[in-house]
Amino acid sequence: MRAKLKKALEWLWSKLKKILLFLLNPRLLLCIAIAWFITNGWSYAMLGIGLYYGINWMIAVATAYLTFLWFPFTPEKIVTLLITIFLLRVLFPKDEKTLGVAREMLNGLREDIRARKKRRAERKEQKRRKKLGLTDETDPAQPDSSDAASDGPEENT
After folding, report:
1. Would you kindly state where each structural domain of the chain is located, as residue ranges?
2. What does the pLDDT read at residue 154?
3. Global pTM exceeds 0.70
């Protein structure tokens, strides 16, 4: 039991360490900060300046944009991530380590999504078969191998 727990904790630590090293990379943090300021930060700065100097139009614009950001359907986080990746490629094109980890994480995510879709399709097919009362042997969608062999004319040689 202890060995399993130790192995599980080591596995978890290796994953967490990899993620933390990726996220706390100074180049990536710089790109995230720039991308965040492009998508969100300007509105916080504008709101602060507007409140400090009493400029009503700045307060109104910043408040309207910030209100929009808090709606659940805004794609702001996705746009920030895309801008971050773009900036990382432009500002640090030789940083293959960070880009490689990002590609690896993306490929893992794609594999997880494909596996979920496959499991969902299998469950859906099982429900369909159960609803129709079919088993693997009685599925009309699957051609019977004995029928395929006897379809053509028989020749005796």
Report:
1. 25-92, 94-133
2. 53
3. no
